[in-house]
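Hi team,

As requested, here is the filled-out complex form for the adenosine-5'-diphosphate run. I kept the field names the same as last time so the parser does not choke. Let me know if anything looks off before we queue the next batch.

— J.
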Amino acid sequence: MTRHNAALTLDNVRFSFGQTEMLFNLQLAAGETGVIVGPSGSGKSTMLNLIAGFETPKSGHILIGGEAIDTAPPSDRPVTMVFQENNLFAHLDVFSNIGLGRSPALKLTEQDKAAIRTAIDRVELTGKEHRKPEELSGGERQRVAIARALVRDKPVLLLDEAFASLGPALRQQMLDLIAALQRETGITILMVTHTPEDALRFSSTVFFLKDGEIKEQGDANIMLSASGPQAIRDYMGTTEHKSS
Ligand code: ADP
Ligand code: MG
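And here is what came back:
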């Protein structure tokens, strides 16, 4: 796999669906992990969609590896995105769904096929190559999506609650897999999670989103600790309420 080296920058990126104005400023160094937490509706998915190109900013710039990618169509961006669900094509089997990460027309070289087999092995789906998505559990389908991300081999990986459908053990396993991938390839990761303790699995920066803006950010170990910002403790429900 390629060695990557691409910082991610959101520079005054403004967006709105009509009501709440969103404004995103974010800086991740190459090879760093950012973990986005925040209440439902705060704009977490929108932020990832802007980076991936599924939404267009009203103003501001998105840079990857120092290059503005604002106007590039999603397919041309050096980005892989894994959603919470519906990542797969129902009519294609596991092998082909992963193969799409390598070639959208499924014109696969021997080298591509070898990479796909390795990815299948890493997500422990060996033997299930020819199953269709409907013949897999929700967790297995997510592992197919992650395997596709592995073979795409892009410098920025966006995960939007990608592990939410997995049980605790599998979720840890997938987080470990992503962390190993990062050590091997230097990818930059930005992940949304509703289980903030996921952030502690990596050396990571936590971004706390509320009302379409990043309100707090910092090292995960500090941000998620008992002495972290009040807003995050309130969100996590870890604020101690003293009885009078
Ligand atoms: P989160 O992922 O943090 O739960 P989202 O980014 O999905 O939040 O949504 C942010 C806000 O934008 C919410 O108020 C949501 O209702 C609104 N929103 C999301 N998608 C759309 C859409 N396609 N059209 C209109 N409003 C949307
Ligand atoms: Mg969301």
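Two things worth flagging: Residues 17, 20, 38, 40-46 surround adenosine-5'-diphosphate (ligand 1) (CB under 6 Å). The chain is about 30% helix and 25% strand.

Thanks,
J.
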